[in-house]
Amino acid sequence: MKIKLLLLLLISQNFWAQAPDIDWIRALPTPINGGYGHDILIESDGGIITGRGNGSLLTIAKLSPTGEIIWEYDVDSSHPGNNVIAVLAGADSDFFLVCLSSDEINLVNPFPTIRKLDALGNVLWTREYRSLIGTELYQAEESTDNGIMLFGSYCNVVKLDGEGTILWQQSPTFFPSTLYSSAFKLTTDGYIVTAFNITDTFDSMSIIYKVNNAGELQWLQQIPIVNIALFYLDTDADGGILFGGDTSWIETSGTSDIHLWKLDALGNILWTQSYGGSQQETLTGIKSVTGGHVFMANSNSNNGDVGSNIGNIDIWLVKINETGEILWKKLIGGTGYDLSYTGYPITILDQMPDGSLIYMARTDSSDGDFTGIGPLIGQFVMKMTPEALANPTFSPTEFVAYPIPTNNVLHLGLKNGVLVNTVTIYNQLGQLVMTIQDAQKSGQIDVSKLQTGQYLVKVTTDQGEAVAKFIKE
């Protein structure tokens, strides 16, 4: 039921979602031979599994929801060349570490390798797939039957069961063999692929298509833009498809923007949008989250959609809604080089059940967002608070919760005539502790049963949302 609150203070007519705050940053020891953080997996208990490394040494670790390292191991490999492609959930609490391996350090004649590990990180078995030698592994996903789908560089797809046995392989016969795939997404009735065909003049044709479980082409869209590699792709709950890329791989002027497309479940283009500044933005990922999508990029622009660069290359996170409008954006970095891995459609950002975001990247900064954490040269994992707990961007005088501190009753100050749908209260951990669907007409909320501590109260109205802090004694 909508309730009118008393005339107290003015509230803004327009509300923008607030970018999440950084909750914690945890440095990850970099393998001896360097390497990038290549994938993360959020487990049902809130634990965070990371896989990283290059060369002969692979490193896996599990972090707690608050960022403490629970265990960490170097996984011995007999192969001089390795890239971590994916960390995938298995049956029960097991998981898989999927790599692209080679008998040479520069990954000549690569082939997939998969390790199955238990909940403590112990390797249960290792499988090599030398029959697939020469096929660059681009992506891997867990299937609904606890198996694994491998997606290769020339649009070839391999299905494995939970013990690593190859069940079937598919390669498209409806395209030229020069078509180079760049991103895949598994669906309940097949899979979606983005790909491009590079000519001798380095002009490219990019396409996106869907194949059903029988390997039959369902639909295809050619993208009306040249010189763009569509490396990233995700779907949403209603079957919509968001995909995109950038032109940084072909640009020589140092300028590049992010280009995104939204399709419906049948492959019809709904909209296209570009984002960026006057310098170079490199897309590094797309993730479907509650209320929209977040895309990740590396940026050195100081204007446009980006804003003010912190120094050198920064990490740029942007949340958009289902029509491509920017809901919030956040630059993360210091004066050094802060960036996420590019070139593979890997999972470097994921969302926890409480709405918080987990992000993994690389930095050599010791100031800015990394002040007091370093020296931090290498990999890090970052947790960002749920949006409901982020500090509001509007002036605190536009909405007030008082008195502070309070013992029993919390008063809400809003513009007269604003219709309130719900009031929600969150504790410092981001946990929802109270929901009021019919807030008192007097603008008072009984908080006497809350434990002592700091809280955030979020008011959802017919004119937007507002957030304020208060303290319960």
The CATH architecture of the largest domain would be 7 Propeller
Residue-averaged pLDDT: 79
The name of the CATH superfamily of the largest domain reads YVTN repeat-like/Quinoprotein amine dehydrogenase
Helix content: under 10%
The domain tally reads: 2
CATH domain topology of the largest domain: Methylamine Dehydrogenase, Chain H
Q: Determine the number of helices (DSSP H or I, runs of at least 4 residues).
A: 0
Tell me the layout of helices and strands:
Elements: E1 3-4, E2 22-28, E3 37-42, E4 48-52, E5 58-63, E6 69-75, E7 81-89, E8 95-102, E9 111-117, E10 123-128, E11 137-142, E12 148-152, E13 157-160, E14 166-170, E15 180-187, E16 190-198, E17 204-212, E18 217-223, E19 229-235, E20 241-246, E21 258-263, E22 269-275, E23 281-289, E24 292-299, E25 314-320, E26 326-332, E27 338-339, E28 349-351, E29 357-363, E30 378-384, E31 400-402, E32 409-413, E33 419-426, E34 432-436, E35 444-446, E36 453-461, E37 464-472
Antiparallel strand pairs: 1-33, 2-30, 3-4, 4-5, 5-6, 7-8, 8-9, 9-10, 11-12, 12-13, 13-14, 15-16, 16-17, 17-18, 19-20, 20-21, 21-22, 23-24, 24-25, 25-26, 27-29, 28-29, 29-30, 31-32, 32-35, 33-34, 33-36, 36-37
